[in-house]
Design brief:
Elements: E1 6-10, H1 14-25, E2 29-33, H2 39-56, H3 62-71, E3 72-75, H4 78-82, E4 87-90, H5 96-109, E5 115-118, H6 125-132, E6 138-142, E7 152-157, H7 163-175, E8 179-184, H8 192-207, H9 213-223, H10 230-237, H11 239-252, H12 261-268, E9 283-284, E10 287-288
Helix pairs in contact: 1-2, 1-3, 2-3, 8-10, 8-11
The structure holds acetoacetyl-coenzyme A.
Acetoacetyl-coenzyme A binds near residues 57, 150 and 228.
């Protein structure tokens, strides 16, 4: 089985940027696409800054950093992102039509041997594969935020995903230093389904005035040894991302996933968490400050 040498990452948001950092550091030529002018360049600048920090901490040599930087190319059209790639990783917002459209363009531009991966957190890989008419090559490659740090790669097998595709996805996980799990295609997979329940319940507790945001988080950090409380984690992931997952799971799985009204209101107000500077906390220079009184 040949190694993945060239990757097209479609979407330069929080996750796309982190995924591109992972693949470039692992030695893959990485094209990072965003349709918004300047966004892919900005994300490559962000990766450069992260790599510099790692060099400063002695976690990466200057040579490894330079190699990773040289492997990164920001692009603005799908055909440049996907020409000659071995793997496409779609990392667009959590919307089936958008993902199907983007991967459809990738399918037309990429070689017939390329794997078509999606970083979806909850949507059906089976539906995506069927809509593309290339179900055997479509696979979920679900990364976790921050991708350079989190060890897991959740590989999701749609009904039509071929055994060869799953094997290649497993080999890719090993190549980029992640630990994979293989999960059957079901809304929310093995991770998001559990993760959003905790986050949504914490928001309902905040709505009910059970405790402050800081104390709800502290409860899980100190009482359950979670590295980060559920509200801070919702800020890190993005309130819009969590809301999209909840709405999908509510429709597909059941009532337990109904989104808390406070979450929907905050998304409407543009308070999306770390990426907009405010969610349940105020964020300055990437660090959560005391939350606004609520
Ligand atoms: N890129 C690269 N490295 C990063 C980073 C980033 N964005 N953010 C943090 N790090 C590194 C730091 O440099 C630091 O490295 P060293 O130990 O080598 O110094 C290390 O991670 C720890 O960071 P900090 O000391 O700043 O802070 P911390 O100890 O509190 O760890 C954390 C930060 C890794 C984010 C930790 O709090 C954590 O694991 N939180 C939970 C994250 C989580 O659950 N993610 C999954 C979310 S769900 C998801 O993503 C899926 C989805 O579909 C929505």
């Amino acid at each position: 089985m040949s190694a993945i040498r060239t990757v097209g990452v479609l979407g330069a948001g929080t996750m796309g940027q982190g995924i591109a950092q992972v693949t470039a550091t692992a030695g893959c030529a990485t094209r990072l696409l965003d349709a918004a002018p300047g966004k892919a360049e900005q994300a490559v600048g962000g990766i450069r800054a992260q790599l510099d920090k790692l060099v400063g901490k002695g976690k990466l040599t200057q040579e490894q950093r330079d190699r990773a930087v040289a492997a990164l190319t920001p692009v603005t059209d799908v055909s440049s992102a996907c020409r000659d790639v071995d793997l496409v990783i779609e990392s667009a917002p959590e919307n089936m039509d958008l993902k199907a459209k983007l991967l459809g363009e990738a399918l037309a531009a990429a070689p017939p041997s390329a794997l078509l991966g999606s970083n979806t957190s909850s949507l059906s890989l089976t539906e995506l594969g069927t809509r593309l008419g290339a179900a055997d090559r479509v696979v979920g490659l679900h990364f976790f935020n921050p991708p350079p740090v989190m060890e897991l790669l959740e590989i999701v097998r749609g009904i039509g995903t071929s055994e060869d595709t799953v094997e290649r996805a497993l080999a890719f996980a090993a190549q980029i230093g992640k630990t994979p799990i293989v999960v059957r295609d079901f809304p929310g997979f093995a991770t998001s389904r559990l993760g959003v329940v905790l986050g949504a319940e914490a928001i309902r507790m905040l709505e009910a005035g059970v405790a402050s945001a800081v104390d709800i988080d502290r409860a899980m950090e100190l009482g359950y040894r979670h590295p980060m409380g559920p509200l801070k984690l919702t800020d890190l992931v993005g309130l819009d991302v969590r809301l999209a997952i909840l709405d999908h799971l509510h429709k597909e799985v059941g009532e337990q996933f109904r989104a808390p009204p406070l979450l929907r209101q905050m998304v409407r107000a543009g308070k999306l968490g770390k990426k907009t500077g405010e969610g349940f906390y105020v964020w300055k220079d990437g660090v959560a400050q005391a939350p606004k009184a609520r």
